[in-house]
Amino acid sequence: MPDHVTQPLLAGTELLQLYPTPTGPTQALRGVDVQIRTGTLTAITGPSGSGKSTLLAILALRERPAGGTLRHRGSPVAALSRRQVQRLRRHHIGYIAQRPAHGLFPQLSARRQIEQTAWLRGVPVDPVAVLADVGLVERADALPAALSGGEQQRLAVAAACVGPPDLVIADEPTAELDDTTADLVLARLRRCAEQGVAVVLATHDARAVAVADAVLHLRHGVLSAEQHGAAGRTAAIDGFGRVQLPEPALALFPDGRALVEVHADHVRLVPPDRPTAPGRTADE
Amino acid sequence: MAHRLDGTAAHGAPPPTSPAGSNPSRPRRAGPRGAPLPRSAAWWGIRQGPWSLLVLLVFTVLATASAAPPMFAEASENAAFEGARAAVPAGARQSDADVVRLTASASPSSADQQAVLDEIRAITGLSAPTLNGKSVGVELGRSTRWESFLAHGTLSERARLFALPDPAEHLVTTAEAAAGRSDGVWLPVPLARELGVEAGDPVTFSARRRDGDERRVDTTVAGTYRVAEDGRRPLDPPGRRDWSLRRGELPLDSALETLPAYLVIGDVATTEALADEVGDQMLWSVDAALAPGLTLAQARQVADQVDLLRKRYVQGRAEGEVLARRVASGIGDLTEQAGAVADGARQRTLPLEWAAVLVALTALLAVVAAALRRRDVEVRHAVGTGTPTVLVALLWSLEHLLPAALGGVLGWLCAWAVVGQAGPTGTVTALSVVPGLLLAMASSAVGVVLVGAFAGGVAARRVRPAAPGTSRRPVPWLVLLVAAAVTATAGLAAADHSGDDARSTDLLVPLLVFVAAGALGMRALPWLARARWRRPSHASRPDARWLARRRLAAAVPGRAPVAAAVTAGLGMMLFALSGVAATRATIEDRVAVRSGAETVAAIEAAWQLDDDPVLAPPRPKAGEPPQPDGPVSGVRTPPLPARTTLVWRIDVTNAATFGTHQLLIVDPATLVDAAAWGHGPELAQARRALSRLADHDTPDDPILGLPAIAVGVDGIEVDDIVQVEGGPWRERLRVVDTVDVFPRYAGEPMYVVPAGPAFPTFGPGDPRLKPRDNLATGVFARTELWGTSDGAVDAVLTAHGVRPRQLDTAEQLRRRDIFVAAQQAGGYQVAVASYLALLAVLALCVHAQRRAAADRPSDLMLARLGFGRSRVLLSRAVEQATLAALALLCAVLGLLLLTPLAGRLLDVAPDEAPAFRLVVTPAALGVTTLAALLAAAAATAVSVQRSGRGEEEAYRTDA
C-alpha cells in the first residue's frame, strides 16, 4: 500500500508536556500516544485541565512537547527547521481557537480573511463561495469586531478550511456558540473531513462527539480511552498497570472487586461471585 | 508505559491524498490582488485610536531629538559669528575686521584696477567693492624728501591725496558743498579753516622736492567734511566704519609721521589727474565688506575664496615690484573664532543630544514592546497560520510607516521651534533645516526598521517556542547594564581628554549611569517593600499603604525598564540643570580669578591718585652716603572710596628654586570688598585666607618674614619660609595659608602679602613714592586700581585726572568664546532635559495604565470585599509616588556618582582654575522633584481613569 494510506498524518509517541507552576512543574500530558489520519474527524474529550488544549497545541505545532516524539508523515517534527515548520503551518494546518476573535486578523474584513489565508496557502479561492458556505456572504466586508461571536467562529472555521489544508485543529469550536451556529460549525468541519482533511477537535459538546469518527478521552494528561464510533472502547493502562473502566462497566463491580482472568491473547475481568472461565484466575 | 491508540478512520474510507500534496515546500501561488494584510497594514497603523497617537508621539519625539542637533549647531555658529562681528572694535585693523582689502599694484593707473574689482565682485557674500587710492609719493620719494601741499593764496598746509569713486557718499560733509562740482576736491574742516577756504574756492595742490623742484596744479574745493576726534581722519558716516578700519592705512603726515595727513579727497579721475600733474603716485586698493546677515557657513565660503585669492596673489608676486600685492581680511579669523565658540557649545550639548536620541529610541521600542504584548493574540495567530517572520516584520514596519512619516515632519517642526525658542539667537537656515529634516526622516526610518525587526524577532521566537516547562536561563540584563555603565564610566575616568573632544562612549556615560541606577533601585524595591511589610502591625484593617507595599513587593514584569526610563529622564534633567548652574558658577569663578575684580585699571603709579604725594628721596650723589633703608616718612597708600583698592604686582624670583613668581601686595581691609570672589569654595577659601592675612597686616609683625598667602605653589605648606627677590628688593615670606586660586591668579605661582608690613621693607624704593625723575629706582611694580564697577574705578581716575594704561573688565572675560559657548548651550540643555523628563512622565503613565488595566479584576474584588474603591485608588497613588520617589533618589545617587567625572564631559577648559565642580543645586533638585511629582500625579490619574468601576469593565481584556 502507498505510504499515505498506511502512514498516519501525525503520530505522537509518549508526548509529554510540563508547565511551570510556583510549586514546581505540572504534567499536562503524561506520555500520550496518538495517531491522526487524514479524512477523519477526531474528537478529544475530557474534563477541564485534562490537557486537551495542550495536546491540540502540540498537534498544531504551536507548542513543542517537553518529551516524546511527534511525526508528520513519518518525519519527526523536532528535526524540521523553523522555516519548514512555518511552511507546514501555512500550507497544511488550519487552527480554530476557542475564542473566535483569536483566530482572525482584526484589521481584515471577512472577505480579506479568506483571501489572506488563501494567499498564505497559495491556493486560488472564491471568497464569496467560501463565505456562502458558512452563511456570511452579507457580512463579507465587515471587520471581525463588527461580527457576533457566532459569525466570528463561522468565519474562523471557513478561513481554517480554505485550501483545504491537510489538518484542521479546533479547540472547543462550539463552546461559545448557540445550538444553530454550533451545528453549522460542526457541519462545516464534518464536510472538511469528508474532503480528506484530518480534523481534530477538543470538545465537551456531545454533538461534536456524535459526528466524530474517533473519540479520544483525556484524563489527567493521559489518554484513558479511545472509542471508535459506536464500537469498542479502548482503555489506557498506566505505568502501574491500572486501567480505568468505562462508567457502564463499573456497575458490574459494585463492591469494587474483580477477578482478572489472564488468557493467551486477552484479559477478562469478572465479578468475584461469577464463575470463572477455565484457566488461571488471579485476584488483582 | 503508554497505551498505543490507533486513530484509523472508523468509516473505513481510504485516507485520501491531500489536495495540497504532502510537500511542505509547495510553491505558493499569489492571489490576483496580492496579500490583504500588507495592503491594510499601512492604514491600520493610524486607525488604532489613542494607541496610534502614542506611536505618533514617540516618533515625533525621536524625530525632534534627531533633527534638533544640526539646527542647534547652526544657530550656535551663527550666533557666535554675529557676536564675533559685533565685537570687532571700531578701531580694529582691516586684518581683524569683517572686510577685505585687496591692494594690487599692478599699475599706477586706476584704469588697470578693473581686474582687481572683478576679483572681489566674483566673491559672493561681499558688498559692492570700492576702489580707492592713496598717495604714496612721500613713502616712495623719501630720498628726495618729497612733500605735497594744499595752498590758498599765501596760506598752505601739508596735505595728501586720497581717491574715492564718490567722495560725498563716504564722507560726513558739511552743508556748504558746491553743487554740481564733481571735479573738485573735498577738504577736512580743520584744513579748510586753516586755509580760509570754503566750497567753490580755488586751491592749489603742489608737490615739492628737497632740490627745490615744485609742481603745482589748480583745483577747486568741492566741499568740506567732518573729521574724527584726532582732527585728521574723516569721520565715519552713521552706521559705517570705513574710515576707522582704514586707520592704519591712511597716508601719514609727511612731517609729523605719527599723525594721519590731512586728506584731500577727490573722485578717482580728479585725484588721479592731480597726482599726475604733481608727480605723486597713487596706490590703489579695493575695499569690500562682508554683507550683513551672512551665516557662518557663507562667511566661511567667503573666507575660503579670500584665502585662495591671497595665495594666488602671493604666488603671482612679480619680481621687482615696489609694493607687494596684499590681501587684508579678518573674515577668516572671525569665522574660526565663531567656530570655536560653536564647538564649545556643541561639546556641552552632545551628551544630552545623544541621550535624547537613545532615550527616544528606547521609548519607541518600549511602546512597540507594549504593543506586541497588547496584540499578542494577533501575533500568535499570524505565527500560527504560518505567516513568514519576514512578513510579520514587514507588516509591523508598514503599520508604523505613516505615523513615522508624520512624526518625522512634526518632530522636525518641533525641533525647529525648540531651537528657535530655547537655542542660541543665531539664524537657522536651509543649511541645517534640510539636514534636520533628513535626519528626522532618517531616524523615523530607523525607528520603522527597528519596529519591524523587533516584531519579527518576537514572531520568530514564537515559531518554535521552547517547551513551557523547559527552564530558560534569562538574559542577565541588569548585570549587562551595570557592567556597561561601569565600563563606560571607568573609560571616561581613565581616558586622557586633553585637547580632545569627548568620545562617543563617554557621552553615553550619564545615560548609562542613570539607567543602571534606576534598574538597580527597582531591583531593590521589592526587598525594601517586603522588609517593611513584614513588620508586625496592629490588628486594624489594612490600609492603602499596606496594599501599595504588597504590590511593590511583587515582581512586576516590565517595571524595571520603566523605572530605568523614569530614572534616566529625571536624572538627565537633574544633570542638565546642575550642569548649567555649575557652568555658570565656574565661569563666574574663573572670571573672578582671572580679572581679580569687576574692573581693573592699570595705572602708572599709586601716587597719581594721591592729592598729596610723597616724593622719593633724592638720589645720593657720588661720595654721599647711601639712603637709609627704612621707610620714607609720610609715604602712604592713597585713600580711596569704598569698593576700590590698590594692588601692586611685582615679578619676583624664589632665591632657592629660581622660579618666577608673582607677588601681589594688597590691602586686605579694602581688597575684601573690591575683589570678585565668585561663588565657589576655592575663592571662599581664598577669602578666608585673606582675612587671616589681615590679622598680620601690621608693620610691627614679628620679623620672621612677611606674612604671605601662597597661591598655586606646589610643595609649600603653612609656616614655610620662602626667600624671594625682585631687583634690589629681597625679603623672606612666611606662609600663613595656602590656596589654589586667588583673584588675579593667572596660573603662575603667586604670593599675596599685606601692604602694611610689606611696603616698609622697600624703603626708598617704595612704589608708592613719586619719583623725582624718569630713572627707574627700586623694584618695578605694576600698580592696579581694582573696583567693583566701571563707575567706581572711573570716578577715582577722573577725580585725579589719571588716564589708565589699560582697562580690564570682567565683562570682557565673560565674552570669551568658551564662556559664551557655555551660555549659549544652557537654554538648549535645559530644553533637551525637559524633553527627557517628559519622557519619564510618559513612561510612568504607560506603566500605570498597564498595571491598572491588568489589576482591574483584583481591584474590583478588593473594592467589593470592603477595602473600598477610594483605598484602592489611594494605594495606586502611593505606588506611583513611591516609584517616582525611588527614581528620583536613584537619579540623585547617579548624579553624585557622576559628579567627579562631570568636568570631563562639560568642562571645555579643564586646565583652568578653579576646577569645574558639578553639585546638585537646590533649584535643580526642586525642579526635578516637581517633575517627579508631576509624573506621580499623572500616573495616578491614568491609574484612576483605567481602573474599572464595573464588573464588565474590570474583566475586559482589550487593555
Top keywords for this entry?
heterodimer, A: 284 residues, Rossmann fold, four-stranded antiparallel sheet, 9 helices, 14 strands, globular, disordered C terminus, B: 959 residues, alpha+beta, eleven-stranded mixed sheet, 29 helices, flat, disordered N terminus
Name given to the CATH architecture of the largest domain in chain A = 3-Layer(aba) Sandwich
Rg of chain A from C-alpha positions? 21 Å
Mean pLDDT of chain B: 81
Between the first and last Cα atoms of chain B, what is the distance in angstroms?
A: 45 Å
Outline of chain A: globular
Average pLDDT number of chain A: 83
Give structural notes.
The complex is a heterodimer of chains A (284) and B (959). With 284 residues, chain A is an alpha/beta fold. Chain A has two domains: 3-234, 3-Layer(aba) Sandwich (Rossmann fold); 252-284, no CATH class. In chain A, 28% of the residues lie in helices and 26% in strands. Chain A has nine helices and 14 strands. Chain A has helices at residues 3-6, 52-59, 82-92, 110-121, 127-133, 149-160, 179-194, 206-211, 247-250; strands at 10-19, 26-36, 41-45, 67-72, 75-76, 93-96, 167-171, 198-202, 214-219, 222-228, 233-235, 259-262, 267-270, 282-283. In chain A, a hairpin with a 6-residue loop joins strand 1 (10-19) and strand 2 (26-36). The two termini of chain A are 43 Å apart. Chain B is an alpha+beta fold and 959 residues long. In chain B, 50% of the residues lie in helices and 13% in strands. Chain B contains 29 helices and 20 strands. Chain B has an eleven-stranded mixed sheet. In chain B, strands 13-14-18-15-17-16 form a six-stranded mixed barrel. In chain B, helix 12 packs antiparallel against helix 14 and helix 13 (401-422) runs antiparallel to helix 14. The relative contact order of chain B is 0.10. Residues 1-32 and 318-323 of chain B have low confidence and may be disordered. Chains A and B meet through strand 1, strand 2, helix 3, helix 4 and strand 10 of A and helix 1 and helix 11 of B.
